[in-house]
Amino acid sequence: MKITVVGCFGAYPPPNGATSGYLLEDHETKVLLDCGSGVIANLQNYICLAELDAVVFSHYHRDHCADLECMQYAAMLDMLLEKRQSPLVMWGNADTGSAFSLDYEGYCIGMTYTEYMSFAIGELRFTAQANEHDIPSFSLRVENAAGSCVVYSGDTGYYDRFCDFAAGADWLICECSLYSDQKRLMKGHLCATEAGQIAAKANVGNLLLTHLPHYGDRETLVKEAGSIYPGHIALARPGMVLTLP
Ligand SMILES: [Zn+2]
Ligand SMILES: [Zn+2]
């Protein structure tokens, strides 16, 4: 399994960058986790949009789904131009409201997951767990046929059950919106120390800090998480590739 960081910023994209978006590739399967602002533009540095099998959304804050409808237009054009053979599948929780639909005119097929329901995209198996956030937000556990596992936090505040959900993952892709001295600045998000705490309790193989702040010295986040978690910690950057068996 190969994971490419397409975008790694919280809230809004930096110049020429993107908010949340992670490309998972496992043999022929290509899945995008979240499709935030700027993700479509940057994703095309790595694959053609017509190659994408599915998009899985953690939740519908716009830094995770702002490009959703543009992705639907891309699927439509690629099908009309016969670049895409089958509709793009869009998986998300049921909380879309009336603002948009995961379904689009037969070009995108919307699918709804619920907590702990297991679903497959190609050979990848997904499970979701409800997070602590101000709207329904889910962390996602992804496993391939070789038994490799990555857990993506989506957006969440600290909760103990997340450590159980992430247990033993090869990589934990964990939101880290805040420096540790900002712990109470925003509810429903993690500071670096909390990300380290989760990684340590879950005994994950590696920790990737993401959903990063736009300000400050981000290397400090690694030091703060590393004060709790003794394993390998990386700071997400666009284009970064993680390789799992
Ligand atoms: Zn977010
Ligand atoms: Zn959010």
Number of helices: 6
How helix-rich are the residues, as a percent range?
10-25%
- How many β strands by DSSP? 14
The averaged pLDDT comes out at 97
Rough outline: globular
Radius of gyration: 17 Å
Bound molecules: zinc ion
Distance between the termini: 6 Å
Main beta sheet: 7 strands, mixed
Strand content: 25-35%
Low-confidence stretches: none
Strand order of the largest sheet: 6-5-4-3-2-1-14
Alpha-beta content class: alpha/beta
Give helix and strand order, one letter per element, not per position.
Answer: EEEHEHHEEEEEEHEHEHEE
Structure, explained:
It contains six helices and 14 strands. It has helices spanning 39-43, 62-65, 68-80, 160-165, 192-202, 219-226, and strands at residues 2-7, 21-26, 29-33, 54-56, 88-92, 108-112, 118-121, 124-130, 138-143, 149-152, 171-175, 206-210, 232-235, 241-243. α5 (192-202) packs across α6 (219-226). The longest helix is centred in the first third of the chain and has 13 residues, at 68-80. The protein starts with a strand and ends with a strand. The structure holds zinc ion (ZN) (2 copies). One zinc ion binds next to loops.
